[in-house]
Design goal:
Strands 3-2-1-4-5-7-6 form a seven-stranded mixed sheet, with helices on both faces. The protein has helices at residues 13-19, 26-31, 49-56, 68-78, 91-95, 121-133, 139-153; strands at residues 39-42, 60-65, 84-88, 101-106, 154-163, 177-180, 184-190. The protein is of the alpha/beta class. The chain contains seven helices and seven strands. The chain is globular. Helix 1 packs across helix 3 (49-56). Strand 2, helix 4 (68-78) and strand 3 form a beta-alpha-beta unit. The model has no long low-confidence stretch (mean pLDDT 85). It has one domain: Vaccinia Virus protein VP39 (Rossmann fold). The structure holds S-adenosylmethionine. Residues 44-50, 64-67, 70, 90-92, 107-109, 126, 130, 133 line the site of S-adenosylmethionine.
């Protein structure tokens, strides 16, 4: 990719490594995915690292990514997994089609911060590629819109990954509870 010295391909090892400690994984706890056997829409899938943890646990995971280049890598990564589907679509359009999932998982791109440390290489590539697809939008409004659609599409809960220090969405979108990790938190909205 322009601006990067070496080609990048997401590794398969990361999620498997995470699965060993899945019981304590805050994302798994937030999604109540520890026993598998639930359907999950990973609506902002990127390279699918989070969704792959849930696939490993036996969940049926629909992966969604709107950027065609990122989606091609994602599709390659999940193509042999049972109960996994990868679609190239915008989450708002896809969720408007009327299908429902036990859990809708949202991990939209975090806004850039004034910080010298760069995120991991995979996230740097994701950011560069997805910036080409996304228009200049109000991130808070985009998140609020996504959450509202997700609440209609989720049978049990919506889980939204945020940086630990991110502000809460406005008061109408206050989560039912949060599961906190070191750097990120998971805002959980119950729908049943
Ligand atoms: C932070 S990354 C996701 C990382 C992912 N959770 C992982 O584990 O690899 C966010 C991704 O969501 C995608 N995205 C953002 N808004 C979207 C939307 N409305 N519909 C579909 N994909 C979207 C971006 O293109 C980007 O690839």
């Amino acid at each position: 990719m322009p601006g990067f010295a070496k080609p990048y391909r997401p590794a398969q090892a990361g999620p498997v490594h995470r699965q060993r400690s899945h019981a304590s994984d805050p994302m798994v706890r937030a999604c109540a995915a520890g026993r598998g056997n639930i359907s999950v829409l990973d609506a902002c899938a990127g390279f699918g690292s989070d969704g792959l943890v849930m696939s490993d646990l036996g969940c049926r995971v629909t992966y969604l990514e709107r950027d065609p280049l990122i989606w091609l890598l994602l599709r390659d990564r999940v193509k042999d997994l049972p109960g996994a589907w990868a679609h190239c679509a915008d989450a708002q359009d896809f969720m408007a089609e009327g299908d429902r999932w036990d859990v809708v998982y949202l991990d939209p791109m975090f806004p850039l911060r004034n910080k010298t440390a760069l995120p991991g290489l995979g996230m740097q590539h994701l950011r560069t590629l997805s910036e080409a697809t996304s228009e200049e939008v109000d991130m808070q409004q985009a998140l609020a819109d996504l959450l509202q659609s997700a609440r209609r599409a989720a049978i049990r809960r919506v889980v939204c990954k945020r940086r630990a220090k991110d502000p809460m969405p406005d008061s109408l979108l206050t989560p039912d509870f949060q599961v906190k990790g070191k750097m990120v938190r998971f805002d959980v909205y119950l729908t049943s």
